[in-house]
Amino acid sequence: MLEFALEVILCLLMIPTIVWSIVIHRKLRRLRTDQGEMTAFIEALNETIVRAERAVGTLQAVGRETIERHDNQQAEARKAADEIARGIQSAARLLRRLDTALQQGTKLLAETRTADRSRGPMILTTAMATSPVDHAEVDGGLESADLDPAGIPKTAKGRDLLRALAALR
Asked: What is the CA 15 to chain-centroid distance, rounded?
């Protein structure tokens, strides 16, 4: 009887063990299924990370290229600004020289008119010499006197003016 009781107890203990083994087996099967899904998820995540790294690398390359292009454009803009500033300074010098030449031409013309008129009844005063002058008349007289037959200026100022105008082109 003792043997029978021990076998009954053993059977009763075996039932929970079998049930527990079935539960663990189902959980392991579910874990294996989930592991396949988890592996697929990890592979997809890894692929996404690789694509993101490539995109970041591409963006960095584009950023470096953009910065380099910006720096080149900025250097070109500075050069252009410097050239424009030199052109403005050159034009200002040329304008001062032209103004001086015009004043000298006006004085010379006034003196010439004064000398011509002093022979006649009218005398040109100094105030009239500094008054506005008909530039077509002055330019016409200076142009023919300052140019040789080939159209090249005879004076150093004329040649400088021609060089300055050519440099501004």
From this structure: 84
